[in-house]
Amino acid sequence: MQGSRGTRNTGFSGGANVQEFQTFYQENLGRIYRYVYSKVGNREEAEDLTSQIFMKAVRGADTERGAQSMQKWLFQVARTTIADYWRAHYRIATNSLEELLDSGWEGPAEDGPLAMTGKPEDKVRSILQALPEHYREVLTCRFLLNLSVRDTAIRMSLTEANVKVLQFRALKSASKLEHVVTEAI
Asked: Is the pTM of this model over 0.70?
């Protein structure tokens, strides 16, 4: 609890603490760098992340902890910093349809390879009919009836995790069928 800490020393500041931090840094730099490098596989990124980790350590370290406890805490800081790095790395930029239209996008090209022949409703109906019943039901519940994962699970007498897996597999199967159905229409 935050309030129960009282006036505990956090962060390395003052002359004695600077010396303590230098010692702490020298003892842990190699371990932290190797750990980070093993997780990111890139020297420059590992160096940057290692410096971020030690910057966080300067600000937030509880200097009253023992050396073992400090090292465990430092590795926890490293784990969360690496998780944040990968989260940011894999974050996919998404644009709303309005933003795309405002920026001048005119929609899909009608004469391109992805141009649809026939009505979209017919294409969806054909894809759904080509799927096994349980895939058809999960996609109907989730996308046509707009049911939540929980409501779909209740309706289908499945667990929520099972619905998510089934939905993933159904979408994967539907994407494979899309080309077959497009050619048939």
From this structure: no
The CATH number covering residue 172 comes to 1.10.10.10
Domain harbouring 62, CATH code: 1.10.1740
Cα separations (Å) of 34 from 43, 69, 157?
A: 10, 20, 48
Q: What is the tens place of the pLDDT at every residue in 41-65?
A: 999 999 999 999 989 888 877 767 7
Q: Which of 42, 73, 90 is the last residue of a domain?
A: 90
Distance CA 164, CA 168 (A): 6
Question: Taking residues 154-171, what's their average pLDDT?
Answer: 90
DSSP3 helix / strand / coil % (the chain, rounded to 5) = 70, 0, 25
